[in-house]
Amino acid sequence: MAAKGRKPRPADPDRTRTTIPAQLGRSVPWPASPDEAELERVPNPHPTKLYLARFTAPEFTSLCPVTGQPDFAHLVIDYVPRSWLVESKSLKLYLGSFRNHGTFHEDCTIAVAVRLAGFLRPRWLRIGGYWYPRGGIPIDVFWQTGRPPADLWIPEQGVPAYRGRG
To answer: Where is the segment annotated Disordered (predicted)?
Structure first.
């Protein structure tokens, strides 16, 4: 109820809806593809605070769409939440769904970033895809939604560049 003399603030449907993750705490099968994977989100308990959340996937895998051989990457996903946080088990299942999915390094990296950015609507998001060499050439893919917020501490992603035998 509003205090005397004050108008009640309109409810923000994104913040007031109760979200109970359907996959958390349950045995669920791995999604067959990224399109079938269900990302879930939970309300951010600190929507007015400026902070960075990081997920690292040091054993991300997909398949080369030409040869069918496995490709391996170390993904680092940084985002500054607004109203929503990604639920980590659903993110793990989504990233794991690429394991049998054939697509190029650039497409995998950008697909993850674009889906998360559209689903969470964060203040800012960036991804670093550090792909291990195939054919002797490592491919690193980077993307972000725009300029990072001012006054935000953003640590380095901490993944060294590939050095081979050097």
So the answer is: 1-41
